[in-house]
Amino acid sequence: MFFNIFGLIVYLILRPPEYLADVQERELEILAKEETLNSELTCYGCHQPIEPDFLICPYCMKRLKKSCPACNHPLDLNWKVCPYCKTSL
Ligand SMILES: [Zn+2]
Ligand SMILES: [Zn+2]
To answer: Which residues surround ligand 1, an ion (CB under 5 A)?
Structure first.
């Protein structure tokens, strides 16, 4: 029992500092990856996962895109012209 606790203390003291830094770096990398994934596929109103061609968020009903009146492609709300069929909006 004494040796176990002593060994643990020695381990905590002698543990190489790079190990902790590595773990923290890896955690940050994972977080950054999750953030980029989320920012690509979540509603900017409620942050629920959405598909890139959704016209409206199914969770909070926020308008995400509008559909072209001529070709029905999903378009950004602030686009002035449809890039697929050149219909002005
Ligand atoms: Zn939403
Ligand atoms: Zn169009």
So the answer is: 43, 45-46, 57, 59-60, 62
